[in-house]
Design brief:
Elements lengths: L2 H12 L7 H37 L9 E2 L5 E3 L1 H12 L1 H8 L1 H4 L31 H23 L3 H16 L24 H19 L2 H17 L16 H5 L3 H12 L2 H16 L9 H5 L9 H18 L2 H16 L25 E2 H18 L2 H15 L10 E2 L1 E2 L25 E2 L9 H14 L2 E4 L3 E4 L5 E7 L2 E8 L7 E8 L3 E8 L6 E4 L4 E3 L2 E8 L2 E9 L3 E4 L5 E5 L2 E7 L1 E10 L2 E8 L5 E2 L7 E3 L2 E8 L5 E8 L5 E3 L4
Parallel strand pairs: 8-12
Antiparallel strand pairs: 1-7, 2-9, 3-5, 4-6, 7-8, 9-10, 10-11, 11-16, 12-15, 13-16, 14-15, 17-18, 18-19, 19-25, 19-26, 20-21, 22-24, 23-24, 24-25
């Protein structure tokens, strides 16, 4: 107890007669009383400071992002990837608007905005067995158009395709002219917008549009585009205010478009990175939590379901994998430990749905299944969405496993779903692809007219969604090839032939990554700087690499090769990753052969059958097998890598004899056997 306070008590207890001067006694008592209240006030203040400190400690703190995403256009393609992108622009990517003009030219964002009397669009697809109802076909063309434009914009700018760039500029000007005075930029008229209680495409149509506009702005720095985007996003936030609105309420009906709208967090996350304004991250968290609280036909990413240990992924694959990004952003933006815990669980569950090629179940619904090389297919949309989600994980968390997954998906499942001889892709594909005649390896699917297992430059009979995403996947992959850490570190994450142009300490730096990777594992990093500059060049060492061959002095730092020194105007860093043939085992104990980043398969000879022609050289293609032999894994396989192929001994199941056969990368196959039991 304070001395002054003890003294005042003793005076009161002993009486006043012991004090010779009553005026002095009164003054002392007053002073002591004042001291008493000062100490009491101080105690109360300290108590409140203690309580506030507890609250601050309990308040979740946003997580700091590991790496900085470089502006779009900083990384351009070279080598075989550039060649492939140029072929795509001359093929299905560059011509989709001409192949299905009735879908691509509907003015859904301006004069053709949706209203209460709007009817479902005739998309030219087969709707047999479609449980989704008609409402999605009202907004569908916004996805088809905007995802295609997103890919077209990025391909045109990265390739410096002057004719295509001019087309992009005209498109952007047209879209900006459709923006209302209040900032609204979307597909609904004033009577409908933001006033939904069932299925709609409000946020989804904006997401697909704004992602392309963001890329265009980052490349061109056109102020009018930036201002339009800020006004458009502000309009959303004003009309769906935080904790005072229900953007994901859709009743008890199908809500695929509403659920797609959760990926509006893609736009918010990038705006946070470009502006540093936390309001965008806060709004992203609000969207995720509101999605979790409402009933949805796409339930996998809802927080309560993730935290339920008995729950298995069952929703539409593309939704499940794109929602991973929203979960990542919410985990970092909120710092909420429950959401961070959920993120780890969700990634593990997705792993159980994924084959060694990176092909996660997406044919169309996951349905509680485990990935299987023959009986579970993957959709091209799902491949793009999952690869993009792993890119976000690596950027924010630095997870090397995520970087491995990016490469696995892009170089195996995605490249293996392209037709190596024609400009078209498979809507659905399996690792073991024994035929591509429309159904999954010849299975009878009586409940619907299954046509997804074929190659097409459009896939209009199903939905024009996978082809636009096939145009997006390569530019998005390139975005994950380089990132920045602090101001003096450049990180080569996903390895590929590309050209990086950036600055280090305000000095322009150009790095050309010369390689034929993943078809060989040798690299030359050709570095040009305008002045000598000291920085760290960090190169991801793939998990499969047994050693690194280089003349450079380096150190290993958490799976990254670190070369730190002063780089002068023209230098080269040469290295090679050494490896051998690896045997991978899937969840069903079937064996895959791999070398480096690639999965290898036995190509199966096939006969080609042409279907619908959209234009000369653009047709639906089906493939029937000519040979039927299947092979069994042998422990004494004696696998050898020679000239880009694997020579291996396997048992022919028909003859029961061992045969020496040749395996090639999935990207070089149409029909194939990739796993062996």
């Amino acid at each position: 107890m304070p001395t002054a306070f003890c003294f005042s008590l003793s005076v009161m207890q002993s009486g006043r007669s012991k004090t010779p001067d009553s005026s002095i006694t009164q003054n002392n008592a007053m002073v002591l009383e004042i001291n008493k209240y000062q100490y009491l006030l101080k105690g109360i203040t300290l108590f409140w400071i203690f309580l506030i400190s507890l609250l601050v400690k309990a308040q979740p703190i946003p997580k700091v992002e590991k790496y900085r995403l470089l502006p779009f256009g900083s990384i351009k393609p070279s080598g075989w990837i550039k060649d492939q992108m140029q072929k795509d622009m001359a093929g299905f990517v560059g011509n989709l608007d001409q192949l299905v003009p009735e879908l691509m030219k509907e003015p859904i964002y301006d004069s053709g905005r949706l209203h209460k009397q709007s009817k479902a669009r005739d998309l030219g697809n087969l709707k047999s067995g479609d449980a989704a109802g008609e409402e999605q076909y009202k907004w569908w063309n916004s996805e088809t158009q905007s995802n295609w434009w997103d890919g077209y914009i990025r391909n045109a700018l990265l390739l410096d395709d002057k004719k295509a760039v001019e087309k992009v500029k005209n498109y952007v000007d047209h879209i900006l002219a459709s923006q209302d005075e209040d900032g609204y930029l979307g597909i609904y008229d004033k009577e409908m917008r933001y006033k939904f209680s069932s299925e709609n495409g409000e946020l989804w149509s904006k997401t697909t549009l704004y992602r392309g506009l963001l890329a265009y702005y980052e490349y061109t720095h056109e102020d009018k585009v930036w201002k339009a985007l800020i006004r458009a996003v502000d309009n959303v936030m004003e009309n769906y205010p935080v904790n005072q609105s229900q953007p994901f309420f859709a009743g008890n009906f199908f809500s695929g478009g509403v659920a797609h709208g959760l990926t509006f967090t893609d736009v918010l996350d990038r705006l946070y990175q470009l502006t540093g304004k936390k309001k965008y991250w806060d709004y992203a968290t609000f969207l995720y939590l509101n999605f979790s609280e409402n009933n949805s036909s796409e339930k996998d990413a809802q927080l309560a379901n993730i935290l339920d240990p008995g729950y298995r992924l069952k929703s539409h694959g593309a939704h499940t994998y794109e929602h991973l990004r929203s979960l990542i952003v919410a985990a970092f933006a909120s710092g909420n430990p429950d959401i961070q815990k959920a993120l780890k669980i969700y990634i593990e569950r997705i792993g159980n749905c994924t084959t060694p090629s990176g092909g996660a179940i997406g044919d169309e619904w996951i349905g509680g299944r485990t990935a299987n090389s023959t009986s579970t297919g993957y959709e091209y949309c799902s491949l793009h969405e999952l690869m993009n989600s792993y890119s976000v994980i690596f950027q924010k968390d630095g997870s090397l496993k995520a970087a491995e997954e990016i490469e696995t998906i892009f170089y195996n499942a995605a490249q293996g779903s392209r037709n190596p001889n024609h400009s078209c892709i498979a809507y659905l594909k399996t690792d073991n692809s024994f035929e591509m005649m429309g159904t999954r390896n010849g299975e009878v699917e009586p409940e619907q007219n299954q046509t997804r297992y074929k190659y097409s430059p459009v896939h209009q009979d199903v939905a024009v969604c996978c082809v636009p995403n096939a145009g997006r996947i390569t530019p998005y992959f390139l975005q994950s090839c380089w990132l920045k850490e602090e101001e003096n570190s450049l990180v080569a994450a996903a390895l590929s032939p590309n050209i990086l142009q950036t600055t280090v300490k305000n000095i322009p730096v150009k790095i050309e990554e010369i390689t034929n990777y993943p078809f060989d594992n040798q690299f030359i990093f050709k570095i040009k700087t305008e002045a000598p500059v000291h920085f760290k060049l960090k190169i991801r060492k793939p998990a499969w690499a047994t050693s690194v061959k280089t003349g450079e002095k380096y150190r290993m730092e958490k799976g990254l090769i670190v070369i730190e020194r002063t780089f002068y105007k023209n230098e080269q860093v040469k290295l090679e990753f050494l490896t051998g043939v690896r045997i991978l085992e899937d969840l069903n104990h079937e064996k895959y052969f791999a070398y480096g980043a690639l999965i290898y398969a036995k190509s199966i000879a096939a006969s080609l059958q042409k279907g619908k022609a959209y234009a000369p050289g653009f047709e639906d293609l089906r493939y029937a097998p000519i040979e039927t032999a299947r092979f069994e894994f042998l422990n004494n396989h004696d696998a050898q890598f020679e000239n880009g192929k694997i020579q291996v001994t396997l048992k022919n199941k028909e003859t029961q004899k061992s045969e020496r056969i040749e395996l090639v990368p999935l990207a070089k196959t149409i029909l194939r056997e990739a796993s062996f039991n």
